Amino acid sequence: MPAVLIFLLWTAVGVFIAVPDMVDGFRWNETIGKFVESWTWALLTPAVLLVDRKLTSAYQSVFRVAAAHLALSIPFSLIHTYLAGLILYPIPSIYWNPIKSTEFAIYFYLGGWGTYCAIIGILQTFRYYNRYMNSQVELARVEKRLVESHLNALRLQLEPHFLFNTLNAISSELAASPELAREMIEDLGALLRRSLECQGSTEITLAQELALLDHYIAIQKLRFGERIDIQIKVGSAALSAMVPSMFLQPLVENAVRHGLEGRMSGGKIVVSARHVGNQLHIKVLDDGVGLPPHWGMETSAGLGIRVTRERFQALYAEPDGHDFTISRRKGGGTEVAIHLPLHRTGAETRGIAG
Questions:
Q1: What are 273's strand-pairing partners?
Q2: Taking a C-beta distance cutoff of 8 angstroms, is the pair 13, 22 a contact?
Q3: How many alpha carbons fall within 13 Å on the CB side of residue 323?
Q4: pLDDT in tens, 50-97
């Protein structure tokens, strides 16, 4: 197949250089002469490719490769000149045969030398372009690995924080209600097991994320009973959307700790998600005490908010890749609004196998 391709390419070159001579009328001998020149290079091309490959692997410097090719251009041009002359020799009407005329031999040689340099120039251009593209692909891979490492580091910051807070809540229940504390430990164990299953993934389906959140909600319901009502309002169409793993838990935890925990009457938290165009819109709403005066996300000292925000910035770094805002709700409470790019997998079922 490569030999056929080489022949077809040089035939196309022959057509290209023969067409201008046909403007004043078709002359078969001139047309055959042009095709013979091209087909002679077709015979030499495999050797040129082999020599170029050997030189490129032997020398790292482009100048040394160029010098070697400059030296080799002389014998290759001479071979082309006399090989074309031999093929054209049986055709008497082709008087410009380089074997018959020294003047035409010089013409053939100079034309062959220019052709050889053009072939090498094209080969080297494609080779260095290919190297450039490969280096860009490798650079993209390195950048992706750096982003993944950064995301993993952020998650490692978040999980001990969550674990400490949860264990602290469990310890407060041990003396008063050992059975309740035991149930909370079981839910915590299930949550950690599912979290480990997702540890190698920067993104999981929203269904999987909600399955993780279910265990955290179970812990909070055991702690607060009827004081806190946590509702999930997510349509089935949004469950297959991809989201960062364990990003909802710190948002719900913030709503519980800073919005509802200090109130005797408790309150309600609503987690909702829907797809709008090419985006996934997620909200975490609570009717708690609201944000402190002069609060700003940029100056917030909360680890959960800071880490979540940095994860979004690392994972969706492109312009308009995401939107993450926290604001006061009308009538009291806090609203967390998140807009993420909508992309899916084939998974439509809720939960993680495990």
A1: 234, 282
A2: no
A3: 11
A4: 999 888 888 878 888 889 999 999 999 999 998 988 888 888 888 788
